[in-house]
Amino acid sequence: MTLLIVGLVLFLGMHSVRIVPGLRPLFVNAIGAGGYKLLYTLLSVIGLALIIYGKIQAHPTEILWYPPEWSRTLAFVAIPLGLVLLIAAQTPSHIRKFLRHPMLIGVLLWSGAHLAANGEKAAIVLFGSFFAWSVLATISAFLRGGHPDAPRGWGGDVTALVIGALLSAAFVRFHSHLFGVGIIG
Questions:
Q1: N or C, fewer C-beta in 10 Å, the chain?
Q2: pTM for the whole thing?
Q3: Is 163 exposed, middle or buried (0-12, 13-18, 19+ CB in 10 A)?
Q4: Sequence-distant (≥ 6) Cβ neighbours of residue 158 within 8 angstroms
């Protein structure tokens, strides 16, 4: 569990720099834009690796609560929506224009659905951390303001829906192989 927590601190810590006003410019001024990008990438990759390895090493028998049956249905609906939002954040889409921060809202849906559907201690630490971070990051992003430009067509929206649907289908099919937990069953 220690590696999972260290990974979360590194990964979410680097992704929280924008939450604290003035912290990112402080880093950029101290080590330069390129240095900051390198540090951000390096600590994020190390953090992600530690999260994955730490979750694999955690004891799945440490159950803190037994999730209700409806939570699996919630996850089955919310996670595909979250994947669509993650893709929409990368395209000029009406989804992005309307929500302003679809990636953060996508992480909120992904982590919240996983949190509701898992009662195992390491899963609660993992998904609870991402959920809390996404709530804080979303609030911070909305407070910073800004609006994406309106796209000309619907290509970005269609792309987000198609790729999100394909990713969702792939996760349904391969979730048990990738993460050791089946979605359907």
A1: C
A2: 0.89
A3: middle
A4: none
